[in-house]
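Running this now, will post back.
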Amino acid sequence: MIPHTAMVLAAGLGTRMKPLTDDRPKALVQVSGRALIDHVLDRLVAAGVKRAVVNVHAFADMLEAHVRRRTDIEIVISDERPLLMETGGGIRQARPLLGDAPIVVCNIDSVWEEAHGSAIARLAAGYHRQTMPFRLMLASMDQCLGFDGAGDFFMDDAGVLTFRGDAPSAPWAYMGAYIMDPTVIDNEPLEPFSMTRLWRTLAPKGQLHGAPLGGYWMHVGDPRSRGEAEARLAAAAPSP
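Update: finished.
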């Protein structure tokens, strides 16, 4: 079943994206004529998600006005104007808005290709709440752009994830989208923190799972990667 609600993490400062973020939030930086956040919302709508909780901080009024123009998905704002809460803290603060059913969570700096239909729908199809509090979407290291790490995870045949740790490299990169049981965050303090704090607790217990994206991932984190993503999308676009 496709989750009804998504959380879109759009409150970041976008420091690495400067000067493109001198006059706008990172979420409104355009890639191929479309704001980053609209690339993500388009994927959510295509998967069947009906409602998106969007957190705002930098240029909050501008971002809020932009997303409220959408008529194809319900938009709910989680206000982080007073304090930026990071990835985990942002979800913890928005918890009253999210309900108790599983949710999709997406960063706004990921653009991806879908050669095999909706990646979010496929991620949801293999999610089992009782055995996997989180199921992360992962890009193969040979199918990504703009990611300068050595890989994040190893994944076994059952989809159980292990952090790279001291290994020189790992074959899978976390690409900014996952499904989670929102109730697992209820006991976390209301403070800024990274969601990886929970993941590192769950992984040794075999409770952190993943699934392959099955397509090409573009991490749009700075002006250079934005240009590279635009070039790839232009090359892949059908001729008029």
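Residues 5-235 form a domain with the Spore Coat Polysaccharide Biosynthesis Protein SpsA; Chain A fold (CATH 3.90.550.10). More later if anyone needs it.
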